[in-house]
Amino acid sequence: MGLGTASGAEGLEGLIVLNDLFQHGIAVKVLEGIGAGERTERSLILDLALALSEDRRRDIVCKTKNGLEAARRRSRVGGRPPVVDDDKRAAILARRERGESIRTIAAGVGVSVGVVHKTLADAKES
Question: How far is 5 from 27, CA to CA, in rounded Å?
Answer without folding.
Answer: 21
